[in-house]
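Reminder to self: tokens first, then the designed residues, so the page reads top to bottom the way the pipeline ran.
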């Protein structure tokens, strides 16, 4: 009895993989795993219904809280960003893969299968985790391998071939959602690509957005939101302590209603491809903006400068899905030490597409009213004079030498 564990979204590509695993790859049991990281309920329901019809056995794993606490929160602490957007797909992949590993161990799998193509980043992220934790289990990527033709060669599946193949195996794909766009969604963000959106100069149509109102439709009155942090992690909204998952869902709804969190960028994929990407990530934008503001209040200038480079490094590692890399662990040791003081409150104004910090407070604030205020008496301004005289000393010496040469 040979068993394959398929990472299953319920979409067309991964659904085609189920019969393919039996017919072409010769497995007796096809076990599907769908990991709930906050994608639409309909997607999960569709995956379950299709798995019931096609697979030997199916697991749906609700990993939403784990996703927030162990993946989104570390991203907040590291101000997790890649090329100007809050990373979301990339931080969910290791967890999805981890859950597939757990199922594979439980059912004694001989192989994994996933629906990633050969062009994207997800193949790297998903296989890395599988290979790290279970190096002896084979990994199959049917979409990357392509469709086997009668003459023995392979070529990429076309959409109509997939629909035909699925139909021949009793799968009705007529109600498959979101055909024009390729969408990946988890509770930290929504990514929309494909179709005409691939053209860098094609303006994104309003219909691609589900979580955010357009600026035009956003209310004229602002929402003033106070986000409480403890050790770098959001813990409350307007003074009310919330479970991590509830907090993210609530900020998503509030910020989305005010049109916050749309990002349209050119992204450099791991293979070097430049791709146009649209994201909507209202909660992530608000929480990252607030977190940065609190760090700016409590961390020293030197810490902030160094942390910016640590954060960028962390973001790149997370983007590549290298979740278990020792460098990531070392970067987090630094990040977490700083976070010990990132406790306090940040007041954010949500208005017409923007999230603006309008206040921050912390018991760790490196700010003293007495020192900074204009009418301070504790700050003896005459003490600055000597420092001012020496300011830029080396540069002034350079100019003296240069002028000497000229005369
Ligand atoms: N390019 C992004 C990433 O690699 C998002 C990919 C999401 N996929 C999609 N079909 N929209 O993290």
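Designed residues (407 positions):
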């Amino acid at each position: 009895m040979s068993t394959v564990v398929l990472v299953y979204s319920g979409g067309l590509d991964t659904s085609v993989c189920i019969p393919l695993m039996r017919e072409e790859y010769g497995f007796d049991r096809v076990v599907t795993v769908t990991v709930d990281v906050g994608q639409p309920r309909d997607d999960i329901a569709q995956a379950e219904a299709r798995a019931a019809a096609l697979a030997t056995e199916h697991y749906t794993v609700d990993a939403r809280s784990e996703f927030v606490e162990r993946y989104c929160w570390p991203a907040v602490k590291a101000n997790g960003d890649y090329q100007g957007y809050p990373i979301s797909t990339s931080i969910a992949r290791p967890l999805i893969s981890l859950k597939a590993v757990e199922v594979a161990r439980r059912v004694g799998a001989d192989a994994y299968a996933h629906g990633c193509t050969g062009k994207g980043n997800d193949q790297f992220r998903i296989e890395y985790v599988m290979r790290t934790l279970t190096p002896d289990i084979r990994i199959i990527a049917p979409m990357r391998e392509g469709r086997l033709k009668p003459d023995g060669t392979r070529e990429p599946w076309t959409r109509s071939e997939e629909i035909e193949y699925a139909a021949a195996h009793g799968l009705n794909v007529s109600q498959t959602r979101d055909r024009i766009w390729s969408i990946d969604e988890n509770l930290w963000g929504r990514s929309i690509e494909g179709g005409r959106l691939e053209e860098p100069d094609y303006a994104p149509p309003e219909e691609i957005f589900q979580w955010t109102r357009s600026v035009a439709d956003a209310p004229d009155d602002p929402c003033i939101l106070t986000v409480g942090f403890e050790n770098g992690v959001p813990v409350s909204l307007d003074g009310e302590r919330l479970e991590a998952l509830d907090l993210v869902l609530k900020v998503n709804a509030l910020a989305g209603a005010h049109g916050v969190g749309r990002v349209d960028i050119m992204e450099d994929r791991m293979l070097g491809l430049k791709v146009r990407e649209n994201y909507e990530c209202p909660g992530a934008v608000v929480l990252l903006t607030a977190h940065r503001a609190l760090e700016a209040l409590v961390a020293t200038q030197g810490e902030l400068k160094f942390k910016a480079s640590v954060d960028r490094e962390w973001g790149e590692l997370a983007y590549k899905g290298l979740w278990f890399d020792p460098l990531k662990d070392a970067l987090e040791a630094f990040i977490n030490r700083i976070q010990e003081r990132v406790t306090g409150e940040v007041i954010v104004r949500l208005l017409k597409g923007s999230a603006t910090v309008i206040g921050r407070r912390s018991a760790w604030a490196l700010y003293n009213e007495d020192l900074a205020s204009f009418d301070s008496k504790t700050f003896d301004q005459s003490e600055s004079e000597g420092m001012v005289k020496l300011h830029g000393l080396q540069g002034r010496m350079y100019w003296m030498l240069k002028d000497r040469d000229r005369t």
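The chain has 14 helices and 18 strands.
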